[in-house]
Predict the 3D structure of the following.
Amino acid sequence: MSKYVFRRVLIAIPVLLGISVVLFSVLALAPGDPFEELATNANVPPEVAQRLRAQFGLDDPLPLRYVRWLTSMLRGDWGFSFQSRMNVVDLILQRLPVSLFVLGSAYVVALAVALPIGVFSALRPYSFFDQLATTLAFFGFSLPTFFTGLMFILVFSIWLDWLPFIYRSDIDATGWRWVLAHARQAIMPVAVLGLFQGATLMRFVRASVLEVIRLDYVNTARAKGLSEGFVVGKHVIRNALIPVVTVVALQVPTIFAGAVVTEQIFRVPGIGSLLIAAVLASATPVVMAITFVYAVLVVAFNLLADVVYGWLDPRIAYR
């Protein structure tokens, strides 16, 4: 298994290099300039702006700029944000805890909703519960997060006045009051993201369990006199989760992308809102760093899914 993982990592390296080339080229050739504000500022002499461009190598050939950017990324130097006046690494680390808290909680909610409902719907196909869960799931993943987010704000913040609709990072409280205040303002963004992802996962879980539960070895296990709970837990769910692992692994990076809209709606000071602000301000180093991190997450979770396959199904050989 270690050789398999090692080979997969070696394959991932040229994939990430190719992604970095495309990403850097697209962003470098895109309209916008990090020094646009200086160029239009009458108080900044043109020679100062030109000297800064030369210092940061913005007028160098594109291949040279790419090599310099890649080597700096590998050393941990992700560039400097002229708009925020701080290093990109520090800027991302400043926003990362909030994003991890909101997105991690949302994915826990998604799994807690999708797995039991999907399994139970497959065990009772076409029952009232199955039809109700399927209908709600269709509504869940058909409605975009910006629409459900606005509906949550309208109902729970404006009409009922139960929850705050602006996420604040500077809460003036300590101890349990601080924890409860953060949990209270995270309820709506977590629910919006979690229910959207959970609706999609529930359909995959249901379809996978339905496919496995009709196979011959499941009927054989029942014919041996094994209890229904043992058959479902040992023979059905474990094998049915194999294709679901792919969806779960690939949805972890996409939930970061989906959080871009949700963080804007609820003013969550996370990575998604940072990416939007960087795009609007033409902060190319920040945009390149965040999008490259997204690409690394996609490749890493694909590798994780391949490894989990072997744990779920011993028939899969690592070769």
Notes: The first strand starts at residue 80 and ends at 81. Residues 136 and 199 are 8 Å apart (CA to CA).
